[in-house]
Amino acid sequence: MAKLTFYTNPYSRGRIVRWMLEETGAAYDLEIMNFGGNIKSPAYLAINPMGKVPAIKHGATVVTEVVAICAYLADQFPENKLAPALDSMLRGSYYRWLFFAAGPLEMAMTAEAYNWDINEKNVQSVGCGYISDTVNTLEMALKNGPYVCGEQFTAADLVLSSYIGWEISQKNLEARPVFVDYVSRCEARPAAIRAGQLDDALIK
Ligand SMILES: N[C@@H](CCC(=O)N[C@@H](CS)C(=O)NCC(=O)O)C(=O)O
Asked: Is 197 part of any domain?
């Protein structure tokens, strides 16, 4: 088994990857990166030239970007069934909502947080459309449930529920009942609870 190293900070999106790592049950080494400190060091920039966390190194392979890391780990540890089978048509929903999280959802929430001006002149080229378009689409994706691929909880749910929970807490996203129920369902998983405890202990 190749060595797995997790670069994170407990106050970051790294918490999402921590949850994913705990879902896999894989052993990993932890490297804590400090904001304004070693996160911009030459040694870390050689791993992630963005100078951001999270990142993982698995053997000689570096993966950055929360959604890419979660998708990669789901495939590397298939026994946990955190992704639909490669030949399953559910793979379409899986990719759709993983990329929706990294693209329109992340963009719309940043637009909301920083009052970006999305208007009739630019909306056709803005990837998230109007913020309400993204939010209504997300609600549509989740309303049948329990998960975006039906009965199977996947890395797409892990990512989406993490983003939704965070954005509700930051008041960038309305606490619609569909969102709140979905986040509670996903975050009740033992690995989510364990991951939160591990990161909270680092903060203390
Ligand atoms: N698109 C990246 C975003 C990563 C990101 O922005 N990380 C923040 C913490 S949540 C960070 O490391 N900021 C430190 C900095 O920019 O100096 C991902 O999905 O992983």
From this structure: no
CATH code for the domain of 99 = 1.20.1050.10
Query: How far is CA 138 from each of CA 92, 94, 117, 158, 160, rounded to the nearest angstrom?
Result: 16, 14, 21, 14, 9
Work out the angle at residue 128's Cα, subtended by the Cα atoms of residues 92 and 45, and round it to the nearest 5 degrees.
Answer: 85
Q: Which residues pair with 182 in a beta bridge?
A: none
Q: Give the pLDDT mean for 6-22.
A: 98
Instruction: Answer whether 35 contacts ligand 1 (Cβ < 6 A).
Output: yes
Could you tell me the pTM of the whole model?
A: 0.98
What is the CATH number for 31? Answer: 3.40.30.10
* 12 C-beta closer than 6 A to ligand 1: yes
Strands 61-64 and 55-58: antiparallel
